[in-house]
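Title: Comparing notes on inverse folding

I've been comparing how different people in this forum approach sequence design from structure. To keep things fair, I'm posting one structure and asking everyone to reply with a full sequence. Here's the target:
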């Protein structure tokens, strides 16, 4: 995720030549998408066990893929907004899943594992992007990252749903 995210300012400013003002508008649209999703989720009394974090990844990554394919200000803003809608699905539902599935005495350990892999992904993604920045075009790289992440996320969603069904049957 971070690997793709760090390419956005380079793509918008350098390749698309749209300027940093458009990048700021993109970030504002993404933030607005996240705010609206949070408002919608706030009204839910029970979130339940589901694969919504994976759907959040799919939404966000699919929007990055579309942004990487089209050099258009309107598409950038619309899909920035839609991609922002996927972020709360990841940020809200993962802690909820830990509380629903994990035993209370393991919550601290589960949160630590979740944060470890999130931070590991950030550091690894940014480190890999250093090498990619030197050898590939930005828009092609963002497209490739998105295309690789989408099937991995779909597979993870499949595995997650199987493990939740297993957990429900054996509980």
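Reply #1:
Here's my take.
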């Amino acid at each position: 995720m971070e690997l793709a995210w760090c390419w956005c300012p380079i793509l918008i400013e350098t390749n698309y030549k749209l300027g940093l003002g458009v990048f700021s508008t993109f970030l504002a649209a993404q933030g607005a998408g996240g705010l609206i999703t949070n408002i919608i989720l706030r009204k839910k009394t029970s979130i339940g066990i589901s694969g919504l974090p994976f759907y959040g990844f799919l939404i966000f990554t699919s929007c990055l893929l579309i942004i990487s394919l089209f050099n258009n200000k309107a598409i950038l803003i619309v899909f920035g907004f839609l991609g922002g809608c996927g972020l709360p699905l990841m940020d809200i539902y993962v802690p909820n899943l830990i509380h629903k599935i994990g035993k209370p005495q393991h919550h601290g350990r589960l949160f630590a594992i979740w944060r470890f892999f999130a931070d590991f992904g950030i550091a690894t993604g940014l480190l890999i992007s250093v090498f990619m920045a030197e050898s590939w075009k930005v828009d092609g790289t963002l497209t490739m990252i998105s295309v690789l992440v989408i099937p991995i996320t779909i597979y993870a969603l499949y595995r997650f749903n199987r493990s939740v069904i297993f957990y429900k049957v054996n509980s």
